[in-house]
């Protein structure tokens, strides 16, 4: 893994969001690592964020959304048949691996440059971005290069693989170090920070929320460690979690060179509509009278929303019978509005669901607080999508949320099953509701995280494998290492199949 050759040429003049529409493939070229000497804080930060966006918004989003039951292969195309058949080869994971490590390298170089300039805030962001990106890498592939990664310029061309527990401890160290650096007196980024525009208060809350996510990931593999660490996190007087308006996103414009990466990738495939909505999610949302289904998916000509059975691409030749992922989530290849769909790395809704889970488990707070936080998570999802709900249904987020949890007496519509918290229920029942509520909220925007949470908890419990599966009733549990690792890294640990669990996955 020659990461010294993967550094983005961040010092190129005019770096901007236009790189999103092309960076998925241009990152494969070998570049002169010496150019990094001329890079600046203001170019390294967006370069890393764009590289992260390319992997997160395309490959991770597509694979995660297929394996989390949101999307499936369109019957009029074939681009993702291997994803639905669970037959993906090593080379199909090269782009996300390369782009995520390229992002990490930019964040690493950003940290080194911030050290030279004694800029605490750029250093803090570099650490938080590395923590976030390495979690994606470890959650996707399991054991990965970590301690020796990013050191190609120091002569390490075959970095050793570290266990996930080592990576996770490193992630927590990154976050803790970053939080200690944020003091509101250092010079902060401006528009070069594509996520928060240099708002360090939001970065602080992002870090603490990311730490909570990291610790809950250990609920099944090491709950004692996780509970102790969560209790310490809550005891820290500086701890603040993300709330409304703190969503970690990158926004895009209508220009074709400034597009959501999923839409940009689709236009690179001649605008072919490779994605349709999955029956798994759409049927569940319809059964719960969930108005968000009209935001996450395009309605058919008769006004309904309908999905294709997972992996059912060979069962029909007509796409008109199935709803597409909507332009609000960047999934409609023929609608240029898809280019404006934001990327959501972490949301306020997710923050509330994470807090609800640790309360339900009794790690902190009480089950009564878990109920309050659950409803906050659901409400926040509706409110975040309020403008789009109004556009698509004529009903704003607050009203749609009220119907979801209380029903609609005027139409004799009962409350949604997944909208009513199991007050007084078991821990298992509460966690099941919380994770399933989070799954609905992440539809179309956080597919990789939804798939990851399913692997951790086994929820939602109504998932069905693709009918095109070649591995039986199992769902994929990891990504394969790219072939470049097996051919270039002498420390390559050997082939891992899609059916092999990662460290924290006990289901």
Structural notes for this entry:
The protein is mainly alpha-helical and 507 residues long. The chain folds into three domains: 1-73 and 82-246 and 473-507, Alpha Horseshoe (Serine Threonine Protein Phosphatase 5, Tetratricopeptide repeat), CATH 1.25.40; 252-270 and 327-341, no CATH class; 276-323 and 348-444, Up-down Bundle (Four Helix Bundle (Hemerythrin (Met), subunit A)), CATH 1.20.120. It contains 18 helices and six strands. The protein has helices at residues 23-26, 41-67, 81-85, 94-117, 120-141, 164-181, 200-216, 223-235, 261-268, 279-287, 293-296, 348-360, 367-384, 386-393, 397-406, 427-441, 447-457, 483-488, and strands at residues 71-73, 144-145, 161-162, 248-250, 275-277, 343-346. The strands form three sheets. It has a two-stranded antiparallel sheet with strand order 1-5. Strands 2-3 form a two-stranded antiparallel ribbon. Helix 2 packs antiparallel against helix 4 (94-117) and helix 2 crosses helix 17. The two termini are 31 Å apart. The model is unreliable at 1-37 (pLDDT under 50).
Blueprint of the fold:
Blueprint: H1 23-26, H2 41-67, E1 71-73, H3 81-85, H4 94-117, H5 120-141, E2 144-145, E3 161-162, H6 164-181, H7 200-216, H8 223-235, E4 248-250, H9 261-268, E5 275-277, H10 279-287, H11 293-296, E6 343-346, H12 348-360, H13 367-384, H14 386-393, H15 397-406, H16 427-441, H17 447-457, H18 483-488
Antiparallel strand pairs: 1-5, 2-3, 4-6
